[in-house]
Amino acid sequence: SFAYFTIKDRLPQILTRVIDTLHRHKNEFFEEHGEKGVEAEKRAISFLSKLRNELQTDKPVTPLEDELPDAALWNQYLDYQRNLSNGNGEPSWFQSPWLYVECYMYRRIHAALAHNPPIDNFDVFKEGKAQNFFESQEAGIALCTYFQELLKNIKDLDERQLQEELFKLLQVSLWGNKCDLSFSAGEGRSQKSNPLQSLENMMPYILVNDMEKLWSLLVNAKKRNTEKNNVRVDIILDNAGFELVCDLVLADFLLLSKLADEVHFHGKSIPWYVSDTTKNDFNWTLKQLQSANHMWMSRCGINWEGNLKKGVWVYHDHMFWTLPHDFSSMAEVAPDLYADLQKSNLLLFKGDLNYRKLTGDRKWEYSVPFHQALNRFHPAPLCSLRTLKSDTQVGLKPGQGEQIEASEPEWMINGKYGVVQFDAAL
């Protein structure tokens, strides 16, 4: 299975890269923290080498031994996995749900650093995320330029033209999800070309296209909106780098077209899945855009910083997003987060990991309705913008998946197909 290939090949590669990254920064740790920094680096590397060995030799998954706030929840989840195995031995790396052990690896990487001050705030994935941003610079400039030109006459657009622009930017945000570093085990995956030029050709690869439903939802929310009720859209972010820039453009368009009054972003509270967005990545991206030596790019950065200051953009990170639970457990495990999402008019879930957590990462029949696969996770109307990089997919027309599979066995994992899949939450 694709899960087997991931655990056998991709995850050890990612751990090896993390170890190499720490090695390369040895001098920097010494300059900043003296011998203490070097000692901490050695301890972190030894912890990660041991982790890699446990993974490759299919050792049992062990409880977390750190004092971090989420440790108890992780250890409870391990007990839950033990009970699932009905006494068939301890959950181990190759004998456990893929989603669980993959999340567990990233949490252990975090522990390797968190245990070892003074390098406990070092993000081992930061370089890759920054590289993706810089390598995608031209695509970013093209997108920011298009967007700033669009804003000059946004007030003159009629409803049909607004809809067209929304659909374009939704597609840019969807295909921006191809730039995923965990998928390539940290190898570069940057966007080199102008993303707007290829949208027409990419249309046939959107397997479920619910953009019309998003449009009606937003337009109706706007009409019902009174002074007291702001229209709120939440974006549950995926990758930093170019994908984040695509998401920020979409978010600003929603405000400036008056389709939304506020946008809430949800990122990860610790470095996660190689390229996922943390608060540091979010702020770093805005700073990079502001200081870019391109007029429209820097204009975007300045305006977006302004959105945060005015409070029409709000950034959140909640521990739940980096737990192993799928989203059907959110109401129970993180009732505060669930209650917050219920205030939204629309939740946009970016990327593959969010899709796996929305659908419980099960091997569904392709034609099972999306609503059913969400397993009672319905805080608000929601939509997944996802390019397919793992073998779970629901909500297709009867025979649609089988037909693609006949000519393209890799269709679910090669990142070539996408969905804009909506659930009304009723």
UniProtKB/TrEMBL annotation:
Any single Pfam family the record assigns to this protein: ARMT1-like_dom
UniProt entry keywords in alphabetical sequence: Hydrolase, Manganese, Metal-binding, Methyltransferase, Nickel, S-adenosyl-L-methionine, Transferase
Domain called Damage-control phosphatase ARMT1-like metal-binding: residue spans: 6-404
An annotated GO cellular component: nucleus
Gene Ontology MF term list: metal ion binding; phosphatase activity; protein carboxyl O-methyltransferase activity
Top-level division of the source organism's lineage: Eukaryota
Cofactor section: Mn(2+); Ni(2+)
Catalysed reaction, written as an equation: beta-D-fructose 1-phosphate + H2O = D-fructose + phosphate; beta-D-fructose 6-phosphate = dihydroxyacetone + D-glyceraldehyde 3-phosphate; L-glutamyl-[protein] + S-adenosyl-L-methionine = [protein]-L-glutamate 5-O-methyl ester + S-adenosyl-L-homocysteine
Enzyme Commission number(s) of this protein: 2.1.1.-, 3.1.3.-
Entry keyword Transit peptide: no
GO terms (BP aspect): DNA damage response; methylation
InterPro entries to which the protein is assigned, alphabetical: ARMT-1-like_metal-bd_sf, ARMT1, ARMT1-like_metal-bd
Function according to Swiss-Prot or TrEMBL: Metal-dependent phosphatase that shows phosphatase activity against several substrates, including fructose-1-phosphate and fructose-6-phosphate. Its preference for fructose-1-phosphate, a strong glycating agent that causes DNA damage rather than a canonical yeast metabolite, suggests a damage-control function in hexose phosphate metabolism. Has also been shown to have O-methyltransferase activity that methylates glutamate residues of target proteins to form gamma-glutamyl methyl ester residues. Possibly methylates PCNA, suggesting it is involved in the DNA damage response.
Family as reported in the entry's similarity comment: Belongs to the damage-control phosphatase family. Sugar phosphate phosphatase III subfamily.
Domain notes: Subfamily III proteins have a conserved RTxK motif about 40-50 residues from the C-terminus; the threonine may be replaced by serine or cysteine.
Name under which the protein is recorded: Sugar phosphate phosphatase
Organism, scientific name: Semnornis frantzii
